[in-house]
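Regression check, PRP case 211:
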Amino acid sequence: MAKFEVMDHPLIQHKLTMIRDKNVGTKVFRETVREISTLMTYEVSRTMPLKDVEVETPICKTTKKSLAGKKVAIIPILRAGLGMVDGITEMIPAAKIGFIGMYRDETTLKPHEYFVKLPEDIAERQLFIVDPMLATGGSAVMAIDALKKRGAKETAMKFVSLVAAPEGVKAIQEAFPDVDIFTAALDDHLNEDGYIVPGLGDAGDRLFGTK
Ligand SMILES: O=P(O)(O)OC[C@H]1O[C@H](OP(=O)(O)OP(=O)(O)O)[C@H](O)[C@@H]1O
Ligand SMILES: O=c1cc[nH]c(=O)[nH]1
Ligand SMILES: [Mg+2]
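Current build output:
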């Protein structure tokens, strides 16, 4: 079984609590999602492979570590995943970015895919699939499936969310046991409308000011 990690660093908890508040407006919500994503990148990238490189300091030559091999692609699930991209590219500026457009039917809660545009070499990259909300897990499972069908490796995938429901974590783990899952919070359950409780509401609407 791959990794499942709740990243409960105090700064992350503090910022996430701020944006759970329904009175927080679009500007602060967007800025804070970006900040949390940057903080999460430290931990999500912890296992990135390193190689030895020679470097000449002003004092002497030495051998030190540098990132090796596998490059990163960030794959936001549209729309809400877009809110996490800038925070991650702040730390990994050379990452390529692919897009999977998906919306969840409000009645059936089933995901519908409407757009896919990926870097050509996803099979050779570590993939950070990002979406602030992991609810039933339907969207995440469909996105991972879309990536696998295009050659991406399950062991190279990390799913990164801000708020997850136990149902969503279970859905990914059952369908794709080799995908690592990182979340800033594991909440209680889903309500009858499929929203995470306590959650933070509809992340896409709060990020983009829609209803
Ligand atoms: O785990 P699930 O039950 O599939 O729900 C989670 C999905 O729902 C939200 O997207 P939404 O459909 O609201 O689209 P949006 O990002 O365009 O708002 C959210 O950003 C996830 O993609
Ligand atoms: O709580 C939820 C569940 C799905 N999508 C959201 O944006 N929020
Ligand atoms: Mg939405």
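Comparison notes: The chain has one domain: 4-47+72-208. Helices lie at 10-20, 26-44, 82-89, 138-149, 166-175, 203-208. No diff flagged against the previous build.
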